[in-house]
Each structure stands twice: as structure tokens, then as C-alpha cells.
Amino acid sequence: MSESQLWHEVDDYFTDRLLPDAPDDALEAALRDSEAAGLPAIAVSPLQGKLLQLLAQLQGARHILEIGTLGGYSTIWLGRALPADGRLISLEYNPEHAEVATRNIARAGLDKQVEVRVGPALDSLPQLADENPPPFDLVFIDADKVNNPHYMEWALRLTSTGSLIVLDNVVRGGRVADPANTDPDVVGTRAALDMIGGHPRLSGTAIQTVGVKEYDGFALARVLA
């Protein structure tokens, strides 16, 4: 058995035991419709989605910002952690992806709490800031990696003490640690990690993961006073 096969088997083992309510019609439909629409198969795994939900619940999150909607799979996990008067804003560059996500979110019964905004996130974020929203309790960044440092900067502006920032896909199959690798996605990820490690208002860590998403990982950063 290859390492990758073993990772998949362990993920299946955990999923069977820790997500006993599966199958989940809304989540499965979101993945199925995303695939049918030709969206890339890069959504978080069920276990990762549940982790995001738990983090939001631990935060007592009432306001969540997601940068990178794709088909709305992670959005549904996060949206289900909100209280009845909570709100999630998700930013998606691709109008076709946003259309699929909006349908998936509505089918999950979250359309009253979740708003998908279409366009480049670096255009949407200043517009969002101009609205002077309440500080976001949790920010999930899972978009184009080259702009990760910019997304981190905006996340810091739109949060407050105690907020949590989750940065996905930071390992890049191990390429992040290869000094010879100058891929823009890797460079952007390094810059975001450097910001987390060096910013006086952030305390963070990063975790490597293996599983159905192969070899990758995520970073967590808590906003300090």
C-alpha cells in the first residue's frame, strides 16, 4: 500500500467514526453540483470542514469572513456554526463558481445568513471595510495563494482582539520549505507565514496534514490586542 492510499484509508476511518451523520444531503449535493459544473476538486475534506465548524463554534463566531468560496462546501460547514442572527460573507472571484455556490448555500438553508460577493477579493475587501462591519470573529482564507499576504493584511484590519484567522494550503506539498522554489503561490504563502510569525498583533502556528487532500496543511493566527 502506498503512503497516499494509507492516508486516504485513515481519513475514511476517521470520517466513519467522527462524522456519523454522513451522508449529509446538502454537503454531498454541493460537491456533486460543483463537479458537474466543472469546478476544480479542491474543496476542503469533510474532516477539514468539521474542523472549521468546530473552530467557529469555539470562537462563538457571529461574524465570519471567507475569502474564496468555490462551490460553497466550506461555506456550508462554517455557516452551520453561526447563531440564528449570525452572518457570513464569502468572496469569490469567478462568477460561475459563485452561482454554483449560491445555489448550494440556498439548498442548505443558509441563504438568509450567508452572502456571496463576486469579484476580485482585493476589490471587495476595501468595499467591505467601507461598510464598517462588526469585527469578524473568524476569517478563512482559501483563495489564490499569491495574494495571501494581502489577504492576511485585510483580515487583520477587519478583525479585533481574539479573532481567529485560518490560512489554508500552506504546505504546498512541501514546496514551501524548498528555498529553490519560486512559484508565485509558494512565495505568497511564505510571505503570509512571515507576517504571522513577525507581526506584533498576531500569534500563530502551522500544522502539516495528510489525507484525502494529500500532503498540505494550514496556519492558525490569533489576533492580539
From TrEMBL:
The keyword Transferase applies. GO terms for biological process: methylation. It holds the Pfam family Methyltransf_3. One of its GO terms (molecular function) is methyltransferase activity. It comes from the Bacteria. Its EC number is 2.1.1.-. InterPro entries: Cation-dep_OMT (IPR050362), SAM-dependent_MTases_sf (IPR029063), SAM_O-MeTrfase (IPR002935). Keywords: Methyltransferase, S-adenosyl-L-methionine, Transferase. This is O-methyltransferase. It comes from Streptomyces griseoloalbus.
